[in-house]
Amino acid sequence: MGPDRVGKILDFRASSDISGHRPLPPHSSDLSGADTTSIDLLAEVDHIFEMRSRRMHHSADMQSQADTENTRLQDEFASVCVETIEPAMQGFLERLRMNGGGGLLEIREGVRGAGVSPRVRLWMSLSGELIGRPRQDQHPYLQLDFDMAQQRVNVAEGDMWKGHGTSGPAETWMTSEITAELVTQSLLHILRRAAL
């Protein structure tokens, strides 16, 4: 081995640490640049969490507003039921009984969060009181269901009597438009068809 080769090996050993690895260069400007870059990148984490927090807060606010509006609408329907729909149906039922007919007024309160909508339904009989459980394919009826998602009242009606007639969805009403006259006219229309 020539003297030049031996000198190069000695120079390499002198520039290595005990483990045989070369030490980092003494120049530190590259390290400070890397640290700055890392800090800048980590600031993005803060930004991501801040944006996520804003979205969650906005979503919670929107849900709260929707829940408040749904509660208001359901309360509005409940109020219209008590003050307008039920008295109109009860008055109609009493007149049916005076004329030899009968019926049954059913009221179901909604269960918020359980998917059970409020419902008011009047079953009718053209001959005496109803016997057994009324059925849509046998008895005339007017049914009003409050649809929370669509914010409207779904109307179903049937004029089935003695095996004749039809039954099913009819139309939709806005709660604010419901009057005693509207309910009574709808019941008269059903009774008229059922009596044919």
What does this structure look like?
The protein has 196 residues and is an alpha+beta fold. It has a domain at 71-194. The chain is 49% helix and 18% strand. It has 3 helices and 5 strands; from the N terminus they run ααβββββα. It has a 5-stranded antiparallel beta sheet with strand order 1-2-3-4-5, covered by helices on one side. The longest helix is centred in the first third of the chain and has 70 residues, at 29-98. The N and C termini lie far apart (124 Å).
Topology, element by element:
Layout: H1 3-14, H2 29-98, E1 102-108, E2 119-125, E3 141-147, E4 152-158, E5 167-173, H3 180-194
Antiparallel strand pairs: 1-2, 2-3, 3-4, 4-5
Low-confidence stretches: 12-19
The tally of strands reads 5
**What is the typical, i.e. mean, pLDDT?**
83
Q: Describe the largest sheet.
A: 5 strands, antiparallel
Radius of gyration: 39 Å
Helix content: 40-55%
Q: Label the overall shape.
A: elongated
Summarize the structure.
The protein has 196 residues and is α+β, with helices and mostly antiparallel strands.
Features:
5-stranded antiparallel beta sheet; 5 strands; alpha+beta; 49% helix; 196 residues; 18% strand
